[in-house]
Each structure stands twice: as structure tokens, then as C-alpha cells.
UniProtKB/TrEMBL annotation:
It catalyses: 2'-deoxyribonucleotide-(2'-deoxyribose 5'-phosphate)-2'-deoxyribonucleotide-DNA = a 3'-end 2'-deoxyribonucleotide-(2,3-dehydro-2,3-deoxyribose 5'-phosphate)-DNA + a 5'-end 5'-phospho-2'-deoxyribonucleoside-DNA + H(+); Hydrolysis of DNA containing ring-opened 7-methylguanine residues, releasing 2,6-diamino-4-hydroxy-5-(N-methyl)formamidopyrimidine. Its EC number is 3.2.2.23, 4.2.99.18. GO terms for biological process: base-excision repair. Keywords: DNA damage, DNA repair, DNA-binding, Glycosidase, Hydrolase, Lyase, Multifunctional enzyme. Transmembrane segments: none annotated. Residues 2-114 form the Formamidopyrimidine-DNA glycosylase catalytic domain. It comes from Hymenobacter luteus. This is Formamidopyrimidine-DNA glycosylase. Belongs to the FPG family. It comes from the Bacteria. The lineage of its organism: Bacteria, Pseudomonadati, Bacteroidota, Cytophagia, Cytophagales.
Length: 272
DNA sequence: TCATATGTTGCGGG
DNA sequence: GCCCGCAACATATG
């Protein structure tokens, strides 16, 4: 789940439950998700309070009164939750932050691709990980500047977190569909108008997704997301979801681009 | 059993 | 250095 809209939704949740709260204990149920050793984490967290939250791309930050920053990356299956007593801990809780109030905040991650680590600051982390500007902040001009000389497929470039941070596999498909651009267009062939379309589509898709708290089934019918196999919003048995939202008789195609499952409408997005 | 999976990293080879 | 394909990571689900 966790692309930018999910992570932003998690951030808002964490801000609600953790802001100005003290951390009484750190409970590590599976150290696999720790990218900073447990003792170092504990020293930075326990006895300190959360003074703010932030987000860059798919990374969520908890600003700490110790001056450091806790970085949460959710991998492919990460989630957050809150509970009060151990029997209510969500399944696959890997780490729990026990707050002074008694509430416990869970870092949940079945596949354990997520990571929790300490950083000196957001800017330091951004530089260390070579993260580009957040996808909500990136301008059409910045995109054009970074992509105009690249002679490779557009989609993998949009997934590259150093170009812009936060776009994941389904969002890129949705963005390209909304912008009516084929994922295998070579980046350097895009016109200025197309870079503007791309930027507009990024804004539309991200703002829509955040507005619906990343709940796919609530997205407008004009969204391609409903054609993805794992979406359950289609009426069972109708296969209606396999068709383009704009062309009721045109089937959405599934291919692989850069090794990633890719959905396109052949009419809306003619090949470059 | 096999295929698939929303992310990231690192390897080998061109 | 750039770029691609591919595997690995660890696990759940259909």
C-alpha cells in the first residue's frame, strides 16, 4: 500500500496520536525492521517527546525532542496502528512505541521490507538517500529539466526517487493515464506541454488519493486504478473494471515496463 | 505448487 | 558514469 498518499495518511494519524506525547518505552518484536540498532534507538526515544511530524516522498519523519529524527519507511506492506493492551496489538506488529499516555503505536509490516532508523535531520537524510523533491512539490520545470536529456522509458524515471520522491507503481500508471502519455515514451521526446500535463496529473492523482485517505475504492470512476486486479470495487462477475474509464469498449492492457506490472489504455496512451 | 505483489538495493554486463 | 535486466529481500494471498 504505502506510496505517497498512504504515507501522508499515516503521517496525519501519527501526528494526531503522537504529537507532544512522551515515549515511555520502545518494544521491538522483530529487530529485522530496525536499520539503527535497538539500543541507539532506545536512547534517542525513551524519555523524549515527539515535537512534530514530516514527510518526504514515501518517508515519514517523527521529530524528537532529542534533536534527532525517527525515519519510518513502510516498504511494500507497512502500516500503522494504535492499541492499548497487548491482545489488541495488530497482527504483524514489528515495533511498538509505548506513549506516556498509555497508548501504544504499532509499526505493522507483514513482509518486513519496511525500516525504522534514526537520522540527524530530514535534510541530512534526504541527501544521504539522494531523494529528489517531494512529488507534491516538484514543478513541471524541474521535471522537464531532469528528464529532457534522458533517452530511456518515462515510467522507470518517474519511479526513480532521486528525480522526484513519492511516486510508486500504481500512481505512475494512474498519472500517465490521466496525462494520456504512454509509459514507454522516451523521456527526451516529451514536449513542454506534455511535461505540464504530467505535472497536472501528478497533482490531480496525489491530491485525490490523499483526499480519500488512499482508499482506492472511493476514487472517482475516471481513475484507472479500478482496472488493477487487486481492486475490489468492480461489481463481481461483470469484468467491468477491465475497461478504460473513458472508452467503455476498450480493454485496459497489462504489460511489464522496467520489470513492473503496468496498466495502460491503448486508445488514451498511444505508444511513442 | 505457482504466480503475484504497492519498494529498495545491488549486481553483472553492455 | 549511465543504463538495463534481474535477483534478492520475507511473507501473504489466491
Amino acid at each position: 500500500m504505502p506510496e505517497l498518499p498512504e504515507v501522508e495518511t499515516y503521517r496525519r494519524f501519527l501526528e494526531e496520536v503522537m504529537l507532544h506525547q512522551s515515549i515511555a518505552a520502545l518494544e521491538v518484536k522483530d529487530a529485522h525492521v530496525l536499520a539503527t540498532d535497538e539500543d541507539t534507538l532506545r536512547r534517542a526515544l525513551v524519555g523524549h517527546t515527539v515535537t512534530g511530524t514530516s514527510r518526504l516522498g514515501k518517508n515519514c519523519f517523527l521529530l524528537l525532542s532529542s534533536g534527532q529524527v525517527l525515519v519510518l519507511h513502510f516498504g511494500m506492506t507497512g502500516d500503522v496502528g494504535a492499541y492499548r493492551d497487548e491482545p489488541d496489538a495488530p497482527r504483524f506488529t514489528r515495533v511498538a512505541f509505548h506513549l506516556g499516555s498509555g497508548l501504544r503505536v504499532a509499526f505493522v509490516d507483514p513482509r518486513k521490507f519496511g525500516r525504522i532508523r534514526l537520522a540527524e535531520g530530514v535534510a541530512q537524510y534526504q541527501q544521504a538517500k539522494k531523494l529528489g523533491p517531494d512529488a507534491l512539490d516538484v514543478t513541471a520545470g524541474q521535471l522537464q529539466h531532469k528528464l529532457a536529456k534522458r533517452k530511456t522509458f518515462l515510467k522507470p524515471l518517474l519511479l526513480d526517487q532521486s528525480i522526484t520522491a513519492g511516486l510508486g507503481n500504481w500512481i505512475v500508471d494512474e498519472v500517465l493515464f490521466q496525462a494520456r502519455i504512454h509509459p514507454e515514451r522516451l523521456a527526451h521526446t516529451l514536449t513542454t506541454a506534455e511535461f505540464n500535463d504530467l505535472h497536472d496529473a501528478i497533482q490531480l492523482v496525489l491530491r485525490t488519493a490523499i483526499g480519500h485517505e488512499a482508499t482506492y475504492r472511493d476514487f472517482p470512476a475516471s481513475f484507472l486504478i479500478h482496472a488493477r486486479e487487486w481492486d475490489d470495487s468492480a461489481t463481481p462477475g461483470t469484468d467491468q473494471h477491465q475497461f478504460c474509464p473513458r472508452h467503455a469498449t476498450t480493454k485496459i492492457e497489462k504489460t511489464y515496463v522496467g520489470g513492473r506490472a503496468t496498466y495502460t489504455c491503448p486508445r488514451c496512451q498511444p505508444a511513442g
